[in-house]
Amino acid sequence: MKKAIYTALLLSAVVLGCSKSDTELNNTDQTFALQASISNSAEVDAGTLASTKATNAEVKKFAQHMVSSHTLAQTDLKNLGTSVGIAVKDTIDPPHVALKGLLMSTPAGRAFDSIYIHSQVADHDMTIANFQTEQNNGSHRDVQDYANRYLPHIQMHRQSADSISRAFFRR
Fold it and tell me: Is there a contact between 76 and 146 (Cβ–Cβ < 8 Å)?
C-alpha cells in the first residue's frame, strides 16, 4: 500500500512539474514585452531627434547608434510578439512623451545634449531592470531568450551614455 501511495505521489509530482510549459506566457512576459516595446520606441524617437539636434559629436554618434540598435531590437520584438501572441506597438508612454516635448522645446546646444544623454542613463537603468525581471521571473523560453540576447547590448548602451555624461556633462 505504501508503495502505491509513493508511486501515486511521485507521478503527481511529475505531472504537476510538467504542467507548466516554458512556452506559456505569464504576466512577467507580457509586462516585459510591453515595456521593452515602449523603451525601443522611446529610444528611436529620442535618438532620431538627437541625431539631428545634438551638437556634441559623441552625443550625436550615440543617438544614431540608439536609432539603429533599437530599431533592430523593436523589429525582433515584433517578430517575437507575432510568434508568441503578444501585441507589440510603436508607442511611447506619458513620461517619454514629456521627455520628447522637453527635448523638442530645448534649443540645440549643450543644454539639449545634456538633457538627452542624462535621460539615456536613466532610461537604460529602467530597461536593464525590466530585462533582469524577465530573466528571473519570465516563463516563456522565447521571451527570456530575447531578454538574454539584448540585455548585454542595453548594458553597453547604459555604460556608453554614462561615459559620455561624465566626460562632457558633469552632473
Answer: yes
Instruction: Give yes or no for a contact between 153 and 73, defined as CB atoms under 8 angstroms apart.
Output: yes
Q: Are 59 and 116 in contact (CB under 8 A)?
A: yes
What's the pTM?
0.85
- Rounded to an integer, the average pLDDT of 49-67 is 97
Quick check: 32 and 130 in contact, CB under 8 A? Answer: yes
| Residue 14 within a domain | no
Q: What is the pLDDT of residue 128?
A: 98
Angle, CA 153 vertex, CA 152 and CA 159 arms, to 5°: 90
Is 146 domain-assigned?
A: yes
> How many domains does the chain divide into?
1
CATH number where 136 lies:
1.20.1260.10
Res. 81: pLDDT tops 70: yes
